[in-house]
Every structure is written in C-alpha cells, then in structure tokens.
# Entry
Amino acid sequence: MAFIERNVASDGKRVMTVEQFRRWLMTAFDTNGDGRISKAELRRAVRLTGGLFASWSSGQAFKFADTNHDGFIDEKEFINLAQFADKHFNVMITR
# Structure
C-alpha cells in the first residue's frame, strides 16, 4: 500500500482522494479479485483499520453504498462508499 500518501488532517483523519480510497480498498481487501467489494470484504476492512463496531459500521456503509442491492459495491458505487467513509469513518475524502 505504498502508493497512498500518509496525509493526516489536523483532526486526525486520513486524507485521500476518491481514487486513492478505491485503490486502497481494491488492493488490500478485494480478496477474490473480482473488482467489487462484498459485505464480508468491507467488514474486514473496517475491522482491520480499527473501526469500532465493525460489523454494524460496515453494514451501515454497505446499505448506503450498494444502491442496486446486488450484494456488492462496484465501480459505480465507490463514490457512495467514499461519501459514507468521509462522514462516518476516520477518513477525509478530497476531490
């Protein structure tokens, strides 16, 4: 994950662009390499990054992001997940 700059805002949030966020998730947590994030993969990401209540938090994020309700977060839905992460997780998403 060396491609992500370790920018941190004054409030302690990790700062990254939507593209950096997408690449980080896909590289580190898309375990089956299908180009989508499943609920289990997102739960693992939240848990490993120190998120409290990982199952609940990832479930809420998943409901928000998976707008077509197919059980995966795909390319078109990453912006939804980025918006949720910016608001509820320790991440600041920039444009």
Observations:
- The mean pLDDT is 85.
- The chain is about 45% helix and 15% strand.
- The longest helix spans residues 18-29.
